UniProtKB/TrEMBL annotation:
Domain SUF system FeS cluster assembly SufBD core: 137-358
Protein name: Fe-S cluster assembly protein SufD
Stretch forming the signal peptide: none
Family designation: Belongs to the iron-sulfur cluster assembly SufBD family.
Record-linked Pfam families: SUFBD_core
GO biological process, one term: iron-sulfur cluster assembly
Source organism (scientific name): Agromyces agglutinans
Amino acid sequence: MPTAEQHGIRAHSDGAGAVVPVQTRSERFCSADVADFAPVNGREHEWKLSPVATFADLTGGELDGSRTPVESVEAEGVSVSWIGRDDVRIGTAGLPEDRGSANAWSSFGEAMLIAVTGEEQKTASVTRTALGSAPRAAHTVIEAAPNSRGLVVLRGTGDARLVENVEILVGEGANLTVVSLQEWSDDSVHLASHFARVGRDAKLKHIVVSLGGKVVRLNPSTHLAEQGGDVEALGLYFSDAGQHLEQQVYVHHDAPHTRSRVTYKGALQGEGARTVWIGDVLIGNAAVGTDSYEQNRNLVLTDGTRADSVPNLEIETGDIEGAGHASATGRFDDEQLFYLMARGIREEEARRLVVRGFLTEIVQQIGSPELEEHLIAALEAELQGS
């Protein structure tokens, strides 16, 4: 029998004992224990586009894990309560992939539970405000019972230095919308990891709106774990001078006949305005019949800004309905401006109309007229500073 030596096959002298690189997105290391992660230095793949020095206390320091003060507006079929770390639901949707998320997981004392029941559509909101300048940790579980319907708004205002994890459990046949609204003060820092598990024939609409804060880094991850699961991941952000807004989105198609649509849109204005969007979609080998598409669009309003946009798509089966991705970053459409100005609209107003039309596509998909009106007003306020 021929041997390997006969064909010149031998191990590389410098490869023995080397760590095998991660081959696919689902193989990334995850742990709920912060001690399992090395200190953050900014060269890691998950941190290389982030201003890590501005939140070193959140990724490596001690955190206040007590209950965060909240104001809730509940509806019939939605309840807000607190549960212990030993609750069986904690850890069901996912586990941390970075040290900041793991630090929050290791530090929280109790988790806030938002439970949605009943087949009638309802809206509830939870607002956290004035958390202060001390570094804090938080953990939230949003659970939609089978066949339930509801919209849950998580809103942050005032001062904060917060790192948190949010788990979203969407039961069989449920239809849940979760809106994460960041309207923090100018000096606030917010790091968040959202983990969602979507059940059989269930649908999740996950919407991220980041307007305020010095640094906001919100990374949503969705596991389409059972047949017929559907996720619509939407994002809207407006970065001003010196503001860093970041989203790293991950969708894992892990079951047959699942669907995902990812659409994030942002605008940048002012010196040092920075946005980061990374979109990872993994279609596993069992996810036959998958239908997936992701896109990111950025509108640059002034010089001195930077938008990073990185779409990634992995496909492990050829039996799918479709999959694609797109990314674009650019300035105003001159034809649109010309069209408006030719009809007597001043250039400044024409620019505002173009930006508003670009961004409100996301706002109009929320499904809450009151919240949509609030966000349109907030966008108008942002544009007044341009």
